[in-house]
Design goal:
Length: about 110
């Protein structure tokens, strides 16, 4: 609450403060009513239809802000093409000894085909 010594002298500002406090009071009264209903209300397994309504607007605005930040980051980031991968196909280190072994096929086979 506002301290009476620090209240503004302007009537419009005072009315705005009153409206804010009335809105806050209405929200708190609704919250107390829902707590009373949960505590003292009927104990059946019925689900309140209000539980199905989610506050998706807050989630959607948060997602939009994150997407905007990502877009801004992508625009500011320097775009470089990715470096091609260097392949190492069969090249061995130079300090290893190379030995070439040639294996000749057998001249005859078990099926007697030459």
């Amino acid at each position: 609450m506002t301290v009476p010594d620090k209240l503004p002298d302007d009537i419009a500002e005072l009315k705005a403060i009153i409206r804010v406090q009335q809105d806050q009071n209405a929200r708190l009264e609704a919250l107390v009513a829902s707590f009373k209903k949960a505590l003292f209300g009927s104990k059946s397994e019925k689900i309140d239809p209000g539980q199905y309504e989610l506050e998706l607007e807050d989630i959607e605005t948060a997602i939009a802000q994150v997407e905007a930040e990502i877009d801004a980051d992508q625009r500011t980031a320097a775009v470089r093409p990715p470096k091609p991968r260097q392949t190492n196909r069969g090249s061995l280190p130079k300090h290893l000894e190379r030995v070439e072994v040639i294996i000749e096929p057998e001249a005859s086979c078990a099926c007697r085909v030459e």
